[in-house]
Design a protein that fits this description.
With about 750 residues, the chain is α+β, with helices and mostly antiparallel strands. Among the domains are: about 20-225, Penicillin binding protein transpeptidase fold; about 260-325 and about 430-460 and about 475-565, Beta-lactamase (3-Layer(aba) Sandwich); about 675-755, Immunoglobulin-like. Helix 13 crosses helix 15 and helix 13 (about 330-340) packs across helix 19 (about 465-475).
């Protein structure tokens, strides 16, 4: 008893001092959603060593290997004493090695730590076998054997051999194929599949007949196996989807069962490659595409470039994961957030006129301004100024928070430096992130992080928008009478109904088009990986045709159910001039969606009754209204910014008469707003050729003249809305603007003359 305890203690100490060398590097294998291999990677020592998982060891494979290699495998503890004695006796009497005693466990030990055949090394092998039995179960030891057994050249493991010789996984092998593979490790250098098939068949049949004698398999199974021909030869490992496969390889797993639908993937690759080929003469060399199954929240197609083998514009780059400017693609999310905050509704009116936010003066894509527009018109036409105004209303922090929580990593690192330009593409994003974000519109406003791995069942989910806001955005984006519908697009008759949004980055470097219906979300990027812009590049004309082609392939002529309005989303009549609830004076009404309890209930206030003199040349406030000799008249209230736009575009409107000059009331509202120069800004002016600065202000619509002062000295008087110019002196310059009501605004700028 003491000796046994001492032996166990000795083994324990030796196990600590000489740990088992069982760290094995396996080849990474990527499979599609049906388990077919689409890509595999060599190990660092350039071996095909593919890991056979326990569930891939079929009963047939287990039974055949154990019967051939070690029929008492499940009855010993790594060393078979009967086999050891038999081998010792036979080797002594024959004076040479005629019989081995290696169990499957001992073979694993030898493969883990290859050594020369010597008696001391055999002792080490036995010790390692005891370690293996101590650490692993029998099934795990068999798994190690199947993963390490050599098959010649750089092929190790039954899975590698199964895929490289038969093009199938080991759990799909027949009895004849398993037996053929089982004899190669005995002579891996001379028994080569494709070269020695006749000899392999002879050895295979020898073992099959032995199995028949021992009644391991039925006679019918043996006969079928003997009759099965062997036509196997070395195959080429699939190298499909290289960018996607390399991306998944970074997870560190070895057997990665992806979500890719290979049929959809290959069709999409062909569409992208053909489309890019047609763009090359225009100086556009690449495109990427991602398809998400909205019901399963899984990526079923992922195209990282137009052609991986094309080196003219970095075809090996994974453009789907590259950070690019998103252009206007974030606008739907912004308006949806504004709907949920009760700030806007689809028919709410916004002024698309020049604005200036502390020096930031956004412009529309076409450099034009449209005046009063509805939110839905602004989104359909992708107008920039209403979007910037909406972000200013919402607050950039809210937008940044939502983007950060939906996987926009670049937002997280740069959120402190981001301004209102964020909504026009002033942040970085990837096609992966944008496509994932748009899939949330298709799932009722709930964001599910798109999965690339088939086994993923726990999805990171977060509500981005209410179902009401998501539906309103989808309703706007699914209309086809919009300017970003491709001009030269044919075959739309069978195109399934989709909602989509386009985007074009600054400098025409990136063209985006993201579309969705209930089943799929498809993201498209087109451009050059080099970052070179192209005059003809745009989301509408360059990216959307590819989006339509892919949807035509995915859902051709599909009569798929469309989105239904949520039960609590309601409609109401609103004033067409403001988008507010109608007042008594409102005559033109339109139907608008709204979220009960959230959307604004403010009544239309664009008409005001003013006391004026009989000749309508003077207006009065309550403080100076005379007892008699006046009348009341209604005037449209027009914001100063819109008034200026109307004057520039020669659009007539009735101004409120100047206020009673005898009134001594101090007005707190309607103070002129100086938009140029920008308060607190430093201006650098060339000494050689000094250019004048522009003086521009916005005033209330009851103002007819303004007075300009430079450093407290009168400079010029002009009509409201008229631009003036002046050449400032160097240093700090105070600029004042006073309207004809006595309301004044002061700003200060810094001027420096330099050699330019």
């Amino acid at each position: 008893m003491l000796s046994l305890c001492g032996f166990v203690f000795l083994l324990f100490i030796l196990n600590l001092v000489f740990p088992l060398p069982d760290k094995i590097e396996y080849s990474t294998i990527i499979t599609d959603n049906k388990g077919e291999v689409i890509h595999a990677f060599l190990t660092r020592d350039e071996q095909w060593r593919m890991k056979t998982e326990l569930n891939e060891i079929s009963p047939l494979l287990r039974k055949t290997i154990v019967q051939k290699e070690d029929k008492y495998f499940y009855y010993h503890y790594g060393i078979n004493p009967v086999a050891v004695v038999r081998a010792f006796v036979m080797n002594i009497f024959k004076m040479k090695r005629t019989s081995g005693a290696s169990t499957i466990t001992m073979q694993v030990a030898k493969m883990l730590e290859p050594k020369r055949r010597t008696f001391p090394n055999k002792m080490v092998e036995m010790f390692r076998s005891l370690q293996l039995e101590w650490k692993y179960s029998k099934d795990e030891i068999l798994q190690l054997y199947l993963n390490l057994v050599p098959y010649g050249s750089n092929i190790e493991g039954v899975k590698s051999a199964s895929i490289l010789y038969f093009g199938k996984n080991p759990d799909h092998l027949s009895l004849a194929e398993i037996t053929a593979l089982s004899i190669i490790p005995n002579r891996p250098s001379s028994l080569v599949m494709g070269k020695s098939n006749a000899e392999i068949v002879a050895q295979r049949n020898k073992w099959l007949n032995r199995f028949a004698e021992e009644k391991i398999f039925t006679q019918k199974e043996i006969e079928d196996a003997l009759a099965e021909p062997l036509t196997a030869k070395r195959l080429v490992v699939p190298k499909l989807m290289p960018q996607f496969s390399y991306k998944l390889k970074q997870t560190g797993d070895v057997n990665i069962h992806s979500t890719i639908d290979l049929n959809t993937q290959q069709k999409t690759e062909k569409l992208v490659e053909d489309y890019v080929r047609s763009l090359k003469l225009s100086g556009i060399n690449n495109a990427c595409a991602i398809i998400i199954d909205n019901e399963k929240h899984k990526v079923i197609a992922y195209v990282g470039s137009g052609n991986f083998k094309d080196t003219t514009d970095g075809g090996q780059v994974n453009g789907a994961a590259a950070v690019r400017q998103p252009g206007s693609t974030l606008k739907p999310l912004l308006y949806g957030l504004c709907f949920d905050e009760g700030l806007l509704t689809p028919k709410k009116i916004m002024n698309d006129v020049p604005v200036n936010y502390a020096g930031y003066a956004p412009e529309n894509y076409d450099k034009n301004f449209n005046g009063p527009v509805t939110v839905e018109f602004a989104l359909e036409h992708s107008l920039n100024i209403p979007a910037v105004k909406a972000l200013n209303m919402l607050g950039k922090e809210k937008m940044i928070d939502v983007l950060s929580k939906t996987g926009f990593k670049q937002i997280q690192s740069k959120q402190k430096s981001l301004g209102l330009s964020l909504i026009l593409g002033g942040c970085g994003t990837t096609l992966e992130q944008l496509t994932g974000l748009y899939s949330s519109f298709a799932t009722g406003g709930v964001y599910y992080k798109p999965s690339f791995i088939a086994e993923d069942s726990l999805f990171q989910q977060r509500r981005v928008l209410s179902a009401d806001a998501a539906y309103m955005i989808t309703d706007i984006l699914s209309r086809i009478n919009r300017p970003d519908f491709p001009i030269h697009w044919e075959a739309t008759a069978k195109l399934p109904r989709i909602a989509w949004k386009t985007g074009t980055s600054y400098g025409r470097r990136d063209a985006w088009s993201i579309g969705y219906n209930k089943k799929y979300t498809v993201g498209i990027w087109v451009g050059n990986f080099s970052g070179k812009g192209c005059a003809g590049l745009s989301g509408a004309e360059t990216a959307t045709p590819l989006l339509f082609r892919i949807f035509n392939t995915l859902d051709y002529d599909a009569d798929r159910e469309w989105f239904s309005p949520p039960k609590d989303l309601e409609q109401r009549m609103v004033c067409s001039e403001t988008g507010m609830l109608p007042a008594d004076h409102c005559t033109n009404l339109v139907l608008d969606y709204f979220i009960a309890g959230i959307s604004s209930t403010q009544t239309c206030n664009n008409l005001v009754e003013i006391s004026v003199s009989p000749d309508e040349k003077i207006s009065y406030c309550k403080s100076c209204e005379p007892a008699n000799g006046f009348k009341r008249k209604s005037y449209k209230l027009i914001a100063p910014e819109l008034q200026n736009w109307m004057q520039v575009n020669s659009i007539a409107f009735e101004m409120i008469p100047p206020h009673n000059p005898a009134c001594e009331k101090i007005f707190k509202e309607g103070v002129p707003n100086i938009t140029s120069p920008v308060n607190g800004t430093e201006y650098l002016i060339s000494k050689k050729d000094p250019e004048p600065l522009q003086l521009v202000c916005e005033t209330a619509n009851d103002v007819s003249r303004v007075y300009w002062y430079i450093n407290n000295k009168f400079y010029k008087t002009t009509e409201a809305g008229t631009k003036q110019f002046f050449v400032p002196q160097e240093g700090t310059v105070k600029i004042s603007c006073t309207d004809d009501k006595g309301r004044n605004r002061d700003i200060k700028i810094s001027v420096k003359y330099v050699d330019l």
